Amino acid sequence: MAPAIMLAADAPRLSSANTGFMLICSALVMLMTPALAFFYGGMVRVKSTLNMLMMSFISLGIVTILWVLYGFSLAFGNGNSLIGYNADWIGLSDIGLTELWDGYTIPVFVFMVFQLMFAILTPALISGALADRVKFSAWALFVALWATLVYLPVAHWVWASDGWAFKLGVIDFAGGTAVHINAGAAALGVILVIGKRVGFKRDPMRPHSLPLVMLGAGLLWFGWFGFNAGSWLGNDDGVGALMFVNTQVATAAAMLAWLGYEKIRHGACTTLGAASGAVAGLVAITPAGGAVSPLGAIAVGAIAGVACAAAVGLKFRFGYDDSLDVVGVHLVGGILGSLLVGFFATGKGQSTATGVFYGDHGFDQLWKQCAGVFAVLAYSLVASAVLAFLLDKTLGMRVTEDEEISGIDQAEHAETAYDFSGAGGGVAGTAAAALAAAQTRKVDA
C-alpha cells in the first residue's frame, strides 16, 4: 500500500505533555530493576542476599552502555525482518534533540531511553532462577552477551516496524514475548546447563525476608504502570489509559486467584503468595492489556494467578532448580498473557483484531499469537543454553561447592548483608548480651 500524502500542517509536532509523560514512565520502568532486586533479594537465604541484589543491579550498568553503543540501533533501526541497523544511532551520534520518533509526538531520545529501561530489566529477570550458585563475573559477561545476541533481535522482531512478528500482526503491547517469555525461556535454558543448587529438595531454602519481598512487589506494581501505560507512547486516544486500568485490574485478580489456590491447596494465604500472584498478573496483562476490556483483564489475571501458582511446583516434579520461580511466573505468565489475546481481544483497543470470543469468533489472531510465542520461546531457550554452556566450559559459571555452602556473598563480594556480630547487633548480639548478663548474675550469686 502506498503511503498516504501528509500535508505539512498534518505532520506530527513535538508534544510537551507526551514527552513529559514518557520521561516519567521511563523513570518508573528504571525503578523496576531495583524493585526486582528487593523482590528477589528477600526470597533468597541470608548468605545470598547481596549477590542477588547485585545480579539485578549490574544490568543497569552493562546494558546502558551497550544500548548507547549499538543496542538501540540493532533493536529499532531499519534493517530486515530479523535485526535492525542505523549507522546514525551507533553511539547515539547523530540524533537531533527535537527529532521525532517515527510519526509520534515524542523525541527519538525519549523513545530510546524508555526502551533502554526495558532492555535493562529483561536480563535481570533471568537472575532469579540462578540464585546461590553463579559466579558474578560470569553472570556479568552473560548479561552482555545475552542482551546482544538474544534480547536485541527479539525486540526487533516484536516491536520494530520491519520485524517479522510485528509485520505478521503479533500483539505484544509491552513485552509478553520480548521481555517475559524471552527471560523465562532463557532462565530455563541456563539452569538446565548449570544444574541444581547444593541441597536442592533436601535443605530448607525459605525466603529470609518476606517484608523485603513485599516491598519489592509493591514497587514493581507501581513501576509497572509506566512499563505498560507508557508503551503506547502517549495517550491521545485513550489506549494508554485503558492499559493503565487493565494493569491494576488484572494484577488484583491474579493476586486473589493465587491466594485462593493457596488456601484450597495448602490451607493458608501467604504473603509470598500475594506478592507472587501480583507479579504473575502484571506479567500476564503486559502483552494483552491494550487489546482486552477490563472484564477481559479480570479473566487474564485470574487464569494467570491459578496457572502460575500451579506451575511453580513443577520444578520439584521435573527436577530443574528454578530458584525463585522465574519459569513458573514469567515464562508461564508471559505465554498465557500472549495467547489469551487470541481469545479476549475486543477489536476496540490498540487494534481492530478480535479474539475467539469477539467479532467473527475466528482463530486468526490466536494463530498469530502462537507463532510469536513459540518462536521467541524456542530461540531464547536454545540460544541461552548455548551461551551458558560456552561460558561454563571456558570461564566456569558456578562457584565452588564450598563457596556455595558457606555463602556466595562472602565468596563473590567480600561482604555480608547483615552484621550480627557484637552487642546490639541483631540476634547474635542479643544472645551475647543475654549470656554476659547470666554470667554476671552467677558471679554475684
Describe the fold and architecture.
The chain has 445 residues and is mainly alpha-helical. It folds into two domains: 12-406, Ammonium transporter AmtB like domains (Ammonium transporter fold, Orthogonal Bundle); 409-439, no CATH class. Helix content is 66%, strand content 0%. The chain starts with 15 loop residues before the first helix and ends with a helix.
Defining traits:
membrane, disordered N terminus, single chain, Ammonium transporter, transmembrane helix, Ammonium transporter fold, ammonia transport, 445 residues, 66% helix, mainly alpha, 2 domains, transmembrane
Shape: globular
> Which CATH architecture of the largest domain?
Orthogonal Bundle
The amount of beta strand, in percent, is under 5%
Got a strand count?
A: 0
Q: Helix coverage percent of residues?
A: 55-70%
Going by CATH, what is the homologous superfamily of the largest domain? Ammonium transporter AmtB like domains
Report the top-level CATH class of the largest domain: Mainly Alpha
CATH fold title of the largest domain: Ammonium transporter fold
Distance between the termini: 98 Å
* Total number of distinct structural domains: 2
Please identify the structural class as seen in this structure. mainly alpha
Mean pLDDT: 92
For the CA atoms, what is the radius of gyration?
Answer: 23 Å
What is the ordering of alpha helices and beta strands? HHHHHHHHHHHHHHHH
Number of helices, where a helix is a run of at least 4 consecutive DSSP H or I residues = 16
Low-confidence segments, given as residue ranges, are 1-8, 423-438, 440-445
How is the main sheet built?
none
